[in-house]
């Protein structure tokens, strides 16, 4: 077995997944990851651990152990990195397929669940396509928001910032932009009303699409700013990303319209992928973990106050990190880079928000630190942020410094 290519446990994807990356760029530019081939990608199991209370950005955690995830009263959490399309559990996906007359690669929960535990690149690609291609109506997007809000609430979530990818659904499936944006934003309203969970959302540009498509997407996002759309993301295959300046105008449209900018960078693509997007002065980074290999870049992120949106299980499942024990979270923490914790694609990676917080805690990111980084790194308005701070102070104690 090949070992990690750096002391930080980050494997450059380029060599191992050259073929997969090429295949992605040709066949499905909406696909966001280039996962490993031929090996088990089962996510690491979560284990309980004592809270360390150690963190670089959160202050005091208070004294008594917090309730564990899955208990009746889990500690509060913030999630800033989750793709709406990746939240849909097998039973919900089957329901959606029946409603929309879409044929999935399996017709029962057991068989579909087995496919979600994908073992190689093709399985993962198949499931990503099956999931995203099954969403056909605005109501599918609304239900997905609502269902995930309920699921995450069971893990103590107070606030979710979800990404969704409308460009290819519009271009390939002809779903009108208003249907998708209405669906997502109606879901936001319903999640607050029914479950008391605050959700905000942002569409994601896809690396490599024509700049006109990116700009159109950004314009739609701005139109929905008053309904819970708070930012603009960009993602896809980092290894076939091309020149990010192609999206400069789309980013400017979003900025001028009052939206934040939080691109994916530094997942599979290394340090360069992060430096490239700093031209946009981003409000945060999805992943960003490749910075752990570059002390100067980490220092710059600290200076900028950039909060990373880190997803431990996803990083192992896609083989960006060789093993959870080698995850760069401790290095980021030691350098003072603030990290919030998310699931990325909880259904596709077989994880939950509770599990991700527990994994992060094992890696030295305390629940309080993850929560406070989430509050400070979110794109929410001041009133929501203040409420979230109060929830955090009640649960974890007021910050000491
Ligand atoms: Zn992501």
UniProtKB/TrEMBL annotation:
Signal peptide start-end: none
Gene3D superfamilies: Metal-dependent hydrolases
Keyword Metal-binding: yes
Keyword NAD: no
Region feature Disordered, mapped onto this chain: 1-75
GO molecular function (one): hydrolase activity
UniProt keyword list: Hydrolase, Metal-binding, Zinc
Annotated Adenosine deaminase domain residues: 76-390
Domain of life: Bacteria
Cofactor field: Zn(2+)
InterPro entries per record: A/AMP_deam_AS, A_deaminase_dom, Ado/ade_deaminase, Metal_Hydrolase
NCBIfam families, A to Z: aden_deam (TIGR01430)
Family: Belongs to the metallo-dependent hydrolases superfamily. Adenosine and AMP deaminases family.
Protein name, as recorded: Adenosine deaminase
UniProt source species: Nocardia rhamnosiphila
Originating gene: add
